[in-house]
């Protein structure tokens, strides 16, 4: 009987979860499409290319919406059970409260692991591919990926940049080499500098500069400058690309990046990286937290408020979760909270609240 009950509860939960997930992802797709439709029309993007772009975007949309899909699905499932007096019927027949919630709790744990796998292995790959399609295929910009690891490279038109370390908020680069290519894509000039600091949107101040020019059948000419201002219009986007890339890294990639470069990264940036690192582990397991929060409310309010009250509660909980998560992350970025605590604090608070609410129910 219990196995039959587990299958029934699990099936109802997964049915609602599937429907809500599809709705959420389609909402993201439609909102993004209308926001970028002018770009697609302007650059005459083929329908097939746009379709591939959004197909590759789905794992990322699933990752972003999964927690709230679990929250909504749990509330709807148990609100319907409570409203139809199915929970009461189970309890009358001697079935414990834990037995009625166990299938969804176990499924939420499995989903949390799947969400983590999605964020670790699938989404980082698809995000890089969608970024390439949007920039290089749709907008037809001559840009390559900015890769992090032992070396970081970026290509803009006739220039190839190599960076050692990028300080995103300060618009500073430590260790920069710039290759300026000729029309045959041979190196015409090479500029090496110890540091680069953005002064205006286009102008960068380079220090300890070695500037070499290469011409066919002529000797290499070398110039040295303690400080020199260069005009690099495209380089102003490097800091934004760097921040975007760290957000798109998996947990393992970001952890390796931190361990490799933490000695040369200033503390403010290091705090941000640590918060982002631990958040990549904390976020997927928010699904389990949402289940623990949603079930007590659904069982208490299902018969009185119905689905409308449950949806309102879900929206309120979702807003509170986002606000608290942003607050604790900001405290972690500022160095006022440990990176681990800043990332996990909202989960811990919701977990304790959910456990207390669960224990208040008649067992």
Q: How are the SSEs placed, and which strands pair?
A:
Elements: H1 2-42, H2 47-83, H3 86-92, H4 97-138, E1 152-156, E2 159-167, E3 172-181, E4 187-198, E5 203-213, E6 221-231, H5 238-248, H6 251-261, H7 267-282, H8 286-333, H9 339-359
Plain-language structure description:
It contains nine helices and six strands. It is α+β, with helices and mostly antiparallel strands. The chain has two domains: about 1-140 and about 275-360, no CATH class; about 150-235, no CATH class. A six-stranded antiparallel sheet has the order 1-2-3-4-5-6. A hairpin with a 4-residue loop joins strand 2 (about 160-165) and strand 3 (about 170-180). The longest helix is centred in the last third of the chain and has 48 residues, at about 285-335. The two termini are about 20 Å apart.
Shape: elongated
Q: Which percent band covers the strand fraction?
A: 15-25%
Helical stretch tally: 9
H/E topology pattern = HHHHEEEEEEHHHHH
Radius of gyration: 26 Å
| Class per helix and strand makeup | alpha+beta
What fraction, in percent, of the residue positions are helical?
55-70%
> What is the first-to-last residue Cα distance?
20 Å
Main sheet properties = 6 strands, antiparallel
- Total DSSP E strands: 6
Total number of distinct structural domains: 2
Q: Report the average pLDDT across residues.
A: 86
Low-pLDDT segments: none
Order of adjacent strands in the largest pleated sheet:
1-2-3-4-5-6
């Amino acid at each position: 009987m219990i196995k039959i009950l587990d299958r029934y509860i699990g099936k109802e939960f997964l049915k609602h979860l599937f429907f809500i997930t599809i709705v959420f992802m389609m909402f993201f797709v439609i909102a993004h499409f209308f926001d970028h439709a002018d770009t697609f029309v302007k650059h005459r993007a083929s329908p097939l290319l746009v379709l591939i772009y959004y197909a590759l975007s789905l794992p990322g949309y699933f990752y972003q919406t999964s927690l709230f899909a679990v929250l909504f699905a749990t509330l709807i499932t148990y609100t319907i059970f409570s409203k139809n007096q199915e929970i009461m019927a189970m309890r009358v027949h001697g079935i414990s409260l834990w037995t009625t919630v166990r299938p969804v709790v176990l499924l939420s744990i499995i989903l949390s692991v799947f969400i983590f796998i999605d964020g670790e292995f699938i989404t980082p790959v698809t995000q890089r591919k969608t970024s390439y399609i949007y920039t290089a295929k749709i907008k037809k910009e001559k840009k390559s990926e900015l890769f992090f690891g032992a070396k970081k490279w970026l290509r803009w038109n006739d220039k190839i940049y190599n960076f050692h370390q990028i300080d995103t908020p300060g618009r500073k680069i430590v260790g920069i080499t710039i290759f300026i290519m000729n029309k045959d894509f041979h190196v015409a000039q090479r500029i090496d500098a110890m540091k680069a600091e953005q002064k205006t949107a286009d102008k960068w101040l380079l220090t300890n500069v070695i500037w070499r020019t290469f011409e066919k059948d002529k000797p290499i000419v070398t110039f040295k400058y303690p400080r020199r201002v260069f005009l690099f219009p495209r380089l102003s986007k490097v800091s934004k690309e760097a921040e975007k890339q760290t957000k798109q890294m998996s947990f393992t990639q970001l952890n390796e990046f931190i361990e490799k470069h933490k000695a040369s990264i200033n503390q403010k940036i290091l705090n941000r990286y640590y918060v982002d690192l631990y958040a990549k582990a904390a976020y997927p397991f928010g699904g389990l937290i949402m289940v623990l929060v949603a079930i007590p409310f659904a069982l208490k309010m299902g018969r009185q408020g119905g689905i409308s009250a449950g949806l309102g509660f879900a929206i309120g909980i979702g807003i509170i979760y986002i606000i608290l998560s942003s607050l604790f992350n900001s405290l972690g970025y500022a160095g006022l909270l440990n990176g681990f605590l800043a990332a996990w604090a909202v989960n811990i608070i919701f977990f304790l609240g959910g456990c207390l609410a669960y224990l208040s129910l008649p067992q």
